[in-house]
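Review box. Two proteins, two foldings.
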Amino acid sequence: MKTKSSILLIYTGGTIGMKIDPSDQTLKPFDFSQILEEVPELGKFAYRIDSLTCDSAIDSADVEPGLWQRLAGLIEENYDRYDGFVILHGTDTMAYSASALSFMLEGLTKPVIFTGSQLPVGVARTDGKENLVSAVEIAAARDGEGHAIVPEVCICFGNLLMRGNRAKKISSEDFRAFRSGNFPPLAEAGISIRYRFQDIIRPADWERKPVFHKKLDTRVSILKIHPGITPQVVRNIVCGPETRAVILETYGSGNAPSRQWFIDLIKEGISMGKIILNITQCIAGSVDMDLYATGKKLSEAGVLSGYDCTTEGALAKLFFLMGMSESNAFVAREIVRNLRGEITK
């Protein structure tokens, strides 16, 4: 059994990899091959830590599914060489990327931990060093049999380790920028790292290699229900010719307008073969379309329940399932199943 863990850091972009240029006082990406100089605390671990930087740093707001495919490919290429992976990523779309990778990497036996920061590593009060150190320690952690303690795609941020497809960014200012409203953190970093072993997904077969899914179908639209929404807006999104699936962000436990024109447009979309998935706008809580009459009308029209999935998780799950099959019946059947711990049923 190996005694020295090996970790691959993958830098995609984001605040954590920025440093103030003394010549013009602007923030610029630093050379991640020199990461131990920037975060010397990492040198105190008895780990082999290598780093890899994407071709060019990507602003979090510019993240596209192509990045997820590249990340899946990088992890696949390096899977046998490392015990864990830490992905440094901008915070704005981190929950989308972590959700996507959770579906694209099936049967993980090693940790894939996303982290980042609200302040650059070179700033005196940065949260980046603590986030990165904790992420690396968790990615390297193994049990007495040499197996990874957390073989999942996760987000490590603000002392919390959250399942990637359960997390959501809730603050642009606080160091605890992410929250997992419907599922407890998998670990909390204090004086020691306290794991919730009972909630961690572990593989049935540690020797079986993961399946890396890279095909995605992104023909998904999101319709956020709001007071004053118009028939034209609903029609454009629900019945749009380029849309294969729609995420309906509803009120509370899955409620939407009960007006006939709205229900008729939902039925029209479903009659066209669209997949319509009901997700609550609330940070915490679950869709229950049997609870109120307005939700019942959606269910009767053929809308599917997203249960307590996040919007980020639902989007990634649809991209993944639609990429697997052109059959909407297959997608509709699988979307309501718990595939990677993304929903509670």
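Next protein.
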Amino acid sequence: MIIRQQYINTLKTYRDVPLVKILAGIRRCGKSTILEMLRDDLQKSGIEASHIISMSYTSEELDDGMTDKDMYNDIKAQMIDDGRYYLLLDEVQEIDGWEKAVNSLLENANTDIYVTGSNSKLMSSEISTYLTGRYISVPVYTLSFAEYLEFKRSDPRSAKELLNEYLRFGGFPIVALGNFDERSAYQIVEGIYNSVITNDITRRHNIMNFDLFNRVVKYIVENVGKTFSANAIAKFLKSEGRSLSVESVYNYLSWLEKAFVIYRCQRYDLQGKSVLKTQEKFYLADASLKYCIMGFNPKSIAAMLENIVYFELRRRGYEVYIGKNETKEIDFVAVQRDERIYVQVCRMLPEESDREVANLLEIRDHYPKYIVTLDELAAGNINGIKIVHLADFLLGNKY
């Protein structure tokens, strides 16, 4: 098992803190495996195996009609003494009212609780009702490039060759663990995507016009990294002779977001220092989701570079926004407590450098500014703006 150390370190930080640790992310991004890693880590730290209770609530393993009371009683029955128990509960959203069971176990038993889930029930208002102030959310993403290299440790290819593969194949662990050709890799990702769409969205929300929903998804995929609104989608559909209300588009976007298929990136006005509510961007949970739907085209990599950099910033704990500086746009403003960085992303320099540099130079503050590029020859510094190759940026190399 290849350890995803960043997540284990985060969970160690919260070990024995009286909060429910919720690991949330798209299906097959590795949440269940992180729980297995956590189990091993607990045992290495001296926790007896009998005091670690692992339960999986996937639909394949679930008894029909299991209630939150059944869930509570089942777990409580395995706690045979007054010692501390570590509960590792996988895909809890399949149990209606799971948060009530978990809250009771937190309150009425000597427990440290970790749960995973991959759809909107983890984001429901019931969590606020039953677990207010008593949980910490740990977002789980597909593999970073650094993790991808770990998964490919025995591969003789260079980091550059593996970066090219990472850009094309994405970071789902099941793909990284294998040695697939492009067609097979995208078939696997398409299966994950279909599972999410079927189980977490269309069935749960009773979507009747599946064709129309798919067209909205395709529009979002085609426009990754571009600002658009629900109104723009509704107008586009109308131009195709289809009818969908703006409210329905909002619902579709919300459901895709809650299933962790897409992530919303809001705009931040650098002049007014406020978050804007219009013309947001959406990024896909993994670049391979675009290619399994649209097919791979080398020209599409430029648009997906932003996607990859966005998630790298999220993994590092930044809140990420699109920057608006009067009429200029900054690809990313990343904020973490008192720290801030500005990032422009472009495929090649120098033809794009003038605009990218000019946009950054207009920001009159002392925070670090970067241009991230695939250009092999472009590393350096222009008036204090650091030009960084994508691989170095993703690996956190000193630049």
